[in-house]
Design a protein that fits this description.
Number of strands: 10
Radius of gyration: 21 Å
Helix content: 25-40%
Number of helices: 10
Distance between the termini: 32 Å
Strand order of the largest sheet: 6-2-1-7-8-10-9
Length: 287
C-alpha cells in the first residue's frame, strides 16, 4: 500500500477536470471503506489512479466519476477500493521474519504439543500472494516429519483483483529470485513453451493457503485462534484510533502466546499493550 508522489501538473494540463469537492469526497470514501487517511497533498496520487477508471468507463471527468459512486454503484465502489489500495509486496520480504518463524516459532509450536493439533496462521494483507506463499513454504518445511497436523494459512486482502492473481499462483520467474534456494526447488513448477519465463506455485504449497476477501475495518467471519499473524505494512496508513481497534481485534483472535509480525516501520508503542516486543517488529501476545 502507499504511493510515490511527484509534483502535480497544473489543472489545465490534466486530461480530466476534478474539483476540490470531488478530491475531498474521494478522500472521505477511501477513509470510510479502507481506513486509509489520505492527506490533501495526495491529490496527484488520487488523480493518477482514478483517471484510469474514468478513461476505461468513458466518462468526461472525475466529477462524473464521483457522481457515479455517490449514486451507489456497488461494482464501481469495489473497483474504486482496488484502485486506491496499492499492493507492494515481494517474496520473503523482511526475511528475518520468515527466519524467525521457521527456526523458532514453528519448531516450538510443534514440539510443545503432545499430539498433532490445529495450527493456524493469518496473512492480513496478502496482496498478490507472495507473503502467504512464503509463509506456506516455511510451514511446509517445518511440518516434515510431523504428520497429522491440521495446518492452514488464511490469506486476506481488501483488493479482489490481487486476490485473483494470488489464487492463480502464477508469477514471472525473475520475481522468485528472492526465494531461498532450498525452498524454491519444491515450491514452483517451471513453465514451458508458451509459459516459458513463468512459474506456478506447486499444489502442495498452494493447498496450505486459503485466500479470502476481507476489509480489516469490517466484520470478520473467522473465529481463530491464530498461532501466528503477519500484519505488515498496513497500519502505517491508519490513524492511531484505527490502529488501536485493529490490534485489539487481532489480539482477541490470537492464541495465548501467539506471535505477531509487523512491517519494518510499524510499532505497537502507545497503540496496544496486549503484546510484548521480542525483536525487530516481532511481538508475542500476553496471556
Amino acid at each position: 500500500m502507499g504511493g510515490v508522489l511527484t509534483a502535480p501538473p497544473a489543472e489545465g494540463e490534466r486530461e480530466y477536470a476534478c474539483t476540490e469537492r470531488d478530491y475531498a469526497y474521494f478522500r472521505e470514501l477511501t477513509l470510510a471503506h479502507t481506513g486509509i487517511r489520505l492527506a490533501p497533498a495526495k491529490r496527484q496520487m488520487i488523480y493518477s489512479r482514478l483517471a484510469r477508471r474514468v478513461r476505461r468507463l468513458g466518462l468526461p471527468d472525475l466529477s462524473a466519476y464521483a457522481d457515479r459512486l455517490r449514486a451507489g454503484d456497488a461494482e464501481e465502489l469495489k473497483a474504486f477500493v482496488n484502485a486506491m489500495t496499492t499492493n507492494l509486496t515481494s517474496w520473503f520480504r523482511e526475511s528475518h521474519h520468515f527466519e524467525h518463524l521457521g527456526r523458532e516459532v514453528l519448531p516450538a509450536l510443534l514440539a510443545e504439543a503432545r499430539e498433532p493439533r490445529r495450527l493456524r496462521l493469518w496473512s492480513c494483507a496478502a496482496s498478490t500472494g507472495e507473503e502467504p506463499y512464503s509463509m506456506a513454504m516455511v510451514l511446509g518445511e517445518a511440518l516434515r516429519g510431523h504428520p497429522g497436523w491440521d495446518a492452514r494459512i488464511l490469506a486476506t486482502d481488501i483488493d479482489s483483483d490481487v486476490l485473483a492473481h494470488a489464487r492463480a499462483g502464477v508469477y514471472e520467474a525473475q520475481r522468485v529470485a528472492a526465494v531461498p534456494r532450498q525452498l524454491a526447488g519444491g515450491a514452483f513448477r517451471r513453465g514451458r513453451g508458451a509459459h516459458e519465463g513463468r512459474v506456478r506455485v506447486r499444489r502442495e504449497v498452494a493447498e496450505l493457503v486459503a485466500f479470502r476477501q476481507l476489509n480489516l475495518l469490517g466484520p470478520w467471519p473467522m473465529r481463530g485462534p491464530f498461532d501466528v499473524v503477519f500484519c505488515r505494512n498496513v497500519v502505517i496508513y491508519f490513524d492511531k484510533d484505527t490502529q488501536r481497534r485493529l490490534f485489539d481485534r487481532i489480539a482477541d483472535l490470537m492464541a495465548p502466546d501467539g506471535w505477531l509480525y509487523l512491517g519494518h516501520s510499524e510499532s505497537l508503542f502507545r497503540v496496544c499493550d496486549r503484546f510484548e516486543a521480542l525483536g525487530r517488529t516481532i511481538y508475542r501476545r500476553l496471556r
